[in-house]
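It would be a great kindness if you could assist me with a short task in structural biology. I am sending you one protein, given as its amino acid sequence and as whole-number tokens for its backbone shapes. I would ask you to consider whether the tokens describe a fold that such a sequence might reasonably adopt. The full record is reproduced below for your convenience.
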Amino acid sequence: MAEESPLIRSLRAAVEAAPTDVPLRLHLAALLLDAGAPAEAVSQVAVALQHEPTSGEARALMLRAMGGGAAAAAPAPAPASDPAPAPEPAASPAPVVEPAAEVPAFDWRTAEEQLSDVVQPRFVEPVTAEGDEGEPVWDVETSRIGLADVGGMTEVKKRLEAAFLAPMRNPELRRLYGKSLRGGLLLYGPPGCGKTFIARAVAGELGAKFISVSLSDVLDMYIGQSERNLHDVFETARRNAPCVVFLDEIDALGGKRSSLRHNAMRGTVNQLLTELDGAVADNEGVFVLAATNSPWDVDSALRRPGRLDRTLLVLPPDQAAREAVLRYHLRDRPVEGVDLGKLAKKTDGWSGADLAHLCETAAEAALLDSAASGRVRMIGMRDLLDAVGQVRPSIESWFSAARNVAMFANDGGMYDDLVAYLKKAKKL
């Protein structure tokens, strides 16, 4: 290809700055086609199709880049009613020139037919929320998973069973020893390691309803409304007891009041403390699970007895759990010859989110290769191993911060389990 034009260079920089701008990417692809760079144009169009799979302009450009537009570009035959042109005088035969080999057009319909037995269509039925119009409606779910669905994490399951689940499953022993049917548990650890999934599994083990609450669900711009929202969450849980209330990112919802500059957030923390104490209503049958990546930023009052008084460190998945996570994210994708055990060994220290990104990267590579060659192929072990070299684990920064806390702020042995793990992993 000749020297790249300034316009193409400018467009390439603009696409890198705005990777989701589909019209801009398609404009660059068209210019690349005109400049004699069909392979690069195909890559640009393939990325555009990931963002807008129904784009007619992108599909037309893909066919054009693959040579599928050749038939459309040929001149139409003259109508039958037109007089035939007069024959031209015979001339010396022109030298025969072999036509250039064309890249086969990518046939999307054939590709989908080839994969129809591998990937079945899945549909999500719309769910209509129940409740009066204008009143806050909280999604009360029924968890259909249990701890058996959590791959690996043997130590986490043992601690959950001994400290939280066993007393709840044995009502006679619980009454004998005066154990209240309520409780709070704080799950902490690096991001993307399955804290939310474990909370759902706990609800499933208890046969309880499940309500998931995040910061955006509670906070409101009007004074006092955030506190009312939080109260409504616990009232809904009490009506549906036994119920597990899962408070995600508890460090944002219940951060240290000493470091909060706005009185509105201090009021929200105070309301949360009131609800956990059951000061306005009985919390019998309401189990509160909270999750955070930064337990050191949680208000100390939330950790007092009767509130979130038990903690559980959720670490990166072990090898068995990594195999389960990889299998889950590859289950609906066309794969062949994949050794999950080998992949799990090469991804030691990766979070569940990192493993999901690994599978997505490998699938993207196979898709782009299929689009460029015009032949659908399966996702193989090589795609996944190449992705291992491209994706970087995301939790090292968390361990850097946690190491300082474990060394200098482990008051009262609050982070003893974290210290033990860091020493075992030779990170301390």
Q: What stands out?
A: The longest helix spans residues 352-373.
